[in-house]
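Recall that a protein's primary structure is simply its ordered list of amino acids. Everything else, from secondary elements to tertiary packing, is in principle encoded there. The following example makes that idea concrete.
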Amino acid sequence: MIKVIGIAFLSILISSCGWQLKGNYIAITKDMNINLLFDNLAPEVKRNFEYATRQHLRNMQDSSKSKIDIRIEDYEESKRVVSIGSDGRVSEYQINMSINYTIMSEKNNSMIDSNEIKVEGFYEFFPNDILASTEEEVQIKREMTEKLIMKLVFRLDSIMSKTN
């Protein structure tokens, strides 16, 4: 009885502190070698994609497994003003990111022709604290890149489950 009350109390305490369990989906690709190709991206964007890829894809390098190439053909990022404060200064921005990609099988057969994934994010801009606002923008972009990779992994999972 004490354990049940303790667990209930702990779960209420954790949820009231604002700590949330968030999914960290990892696709374990035992049956295939996945090559994520994004050579034509800017160096900073490429670093973000490489980091997010390492977080969500566990690739088993084995030449006997089937090979899949995911080619990111195009990357776009835009930023626009969402709201302006009473003093006439920008108070919130919206960032949009999108990628166009193609998934090719081992024999260069297209599993998915050119397809697009889009994500958007918002952040507040504080003109009196530009450094913090810049850091928040960088963090939002990193999280959005991770969302793009997650969506790509989910699509790859759905394709692989249909082919099996």
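The chain has one domain: 22-163. Residues 18-26 have pLDDT under 50 and may be disordered.
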